[in-house]
Amino acid sequence: MKEVVAVEYRIDRRSGVPAFQQIVQQTKQALRLGVLVPGDRLPTAKEVAETSAVNPNTTLKAYRELEREGLVEPRPGQGTFVRRALGRPETGTDSPLYGELVAWMAKAAGAGLEQEDVAALVASALEKQYASGTAVVTGATRTRSTGE
User: Fold this and answer.
1) Hey, CA dihedral for 11, 16, 22, 25, is it positive or negative?
2) Which residue, 33, 22, 35, is CA-closest to 66?
3) How would you classify residue 131: left for phi > 0, otherwise alpha for psi between -120 and 50, otherwise beta?
4) Under a CB-based contact definition with an 8 Å cutoff, are residues 59 and 20 in contact?
5) C-beta separation of 40 from 5 below 8 A
6) pTM, rounded to two decimals
7) ∠ CA(97), CA(100), CA(102), 5° rounding?
8) Please, which residues bridge with residue 14 across strands?
9) What is the CA radius of gyration of the chain?
């Protein structure tokens, strides 16, 4: 039996970012973090509609954008599959940098900062470091099980 990957998209309707773009951003983040790897099947538009309350056409629009960028490929009758990853070893959740970031986040929370405060600090630091604006992306989660 082949391995099945379940990715759950979190759509923030208050963010002002269109739902399809949130799906694209979260998929790219999952590709960067190694949550999704080449060969993984993305959830169907129907599955995303059921778990995230978005119209199936919204998901299809996001998948077409990801296909246009060469990240995924549709396989008729099988689904949409990851073609290539975006991550580097340094971006994985098992990297030392990730551990340092988690420790910093715990320190920030211990100092009384709320999630929005931390997001603002991180966005500001990103802008200063990379001088390219901010792109706040929420994550996708990955679970593996066996099945068809």
Assistant:
1) negative
2) 22
3) left
4) yes
5) yes
6) 0.66
7) 110
8) none
9) 16
What are the Cα distances from residue 110, in Å, to 67, 100, 104?
42, 15, 10
CB 52 within 8 A of CB 45: no
Please, what is the Cα angle at 37 between 32 and 43, to 5 degrees?
100
Token code pair at residue 121: 């600090």
pLDDT of 79-124, one tens digit each? 999 999 887 766 667 778 878 888 999 999 999 999 888 888 888 8
Q: Is the pLDDT of residue 134 over 60?
A: no
Structure tokens at 80: 């949409």
43: left (phi over 0), alpha (psi -120 to 50) or beta: beta
For the chain, where are the alpha helices, taking DSSP H only?
Answer: 19-33, 45-52, 56-68, 96-110, 115-130
34 conformational bin, left if phi > 0, alpha if psi -120 to 50, beta if neither: left
**Residue in the block written with tokens 């949550």:** 35
